[in-house]
Design a protein that fits this description.
Layout lengths: L6 H28 L9 E13 L3 E12 L2 H21 L7 E15 L2 E17 L5 H10 L4 E8 L4 H26 L3 E10 L2 E2 L4 E3 L6 H4 L6 E3 L3 E13 L1
Length: about 250
């Protein structure tokens, strides 16, 4: 006995099969895309922060010295200012400061006015010039300050201390931070009753903490607004190089 299946049913079954097939292809493509760039398995991990600090003495100092001059004519003020600054540069060289460690950081010319009964009257010009100085021999900081004041510097500021090359100390601080994170991870794993398998992630941050300079006994009664007196005693203090890391460990 021959059974006849209506063509509509046959076409319906074919359509359902095609839909199912396309659905499988779509799902496979989606799951393949979803796992690109990451492991298909789910890992149990813990993230631990570690910190390492190395304390050292700074080996360089930076400061700014400036000269402000005034005159009725621009040229007069500039000539006076240039002479004083050049004298300071010569004195710095005599103290052993290299040319590459002396940099002109500012030069400005301003008109100066008097105001009378609402009227503006030009009374002259002000010239300001500043030098940025790097001092590699910290024992000479006081001498530099005193000599600059003696030769007419009436603006001294911005004393700071630093490390000329902190890379070695940064490496030591990083190692110390990683050891700190691993020690914490071992303690936590033991408490949780799990084992550390391996490191699966690492992130680093951190920076250097410069010391605050301590300036003592700069002879307030010295000439030129307190400048040009006895050499001040400058304390460079200590310098902290700190690294903070976050380490991700796989556990089981």
């Amino acid at each position: 006995m021959k059974i006849s299946i209506p063509i509509q049913i046959v076409m319906g079954l074919i359509g359902l099969s095609l839909i199912a097939y396309l659905g499988v292809l779509t799902w496979n493509a989606y799951t393949a895309h979803d796992t690109i760039g990451r492991p298909p398995d789910v890992r149990d991990t813990i993230s631990i922060e570690g910190e390492g600090t190395i304390t050292s003495r700074p080996d360089i100092a930076r400061l700014n010295v400036g000269v402000i001059s005034e005159g009725q004519e621009v040229k007069t003020a500039q000539d006076e200012n240039t002479k004083q600054v050049n004298d300071i540069i010569k004195a710095l060289s005599a103290l052993g400061i290299a040319d590459e460690d002396i940099q002109t950081s500012n030069y400005q010319v301003f008109p100066q006015y008097n105001y009378r009964e609402g009227e503006q009257e030009l009374r002259g010009y002000r010239v300001s010039q500043s030098l940025s100085i790097k001092i590699r021999d910290l024992e000479k900081i006081g001498d530099v300050l005193a000599k600059a004041g003696e030769l007419g510097s009436n603006e001294i500021h911005g004393i700071s201390f630093d490390l000329d090359d902190p890379s070695a100390l940064e490496a030591d601080a990083r190692t110390k931070a990683i050891v700190d994170a691993k020690t914490k991870a071992d303690v936590l794993a033991d408490t949780l009753g799990v084992k550390i398998v391996r490191v699966v992630g690492f992130y680093e941050q951190g920076g250097n903490v410069p010391p605050e300079p301590f300036l003592r006994a700069y002879a307030e009664d010295a000439k030129a607004m307190g400048m040009g007196g006895a050499a001040p005693e400058v304390k460079p203090g200590s310098f902290d190089v700190t690294k903070n890391v976050t380490v991700m460990f796989e556990i089981r």
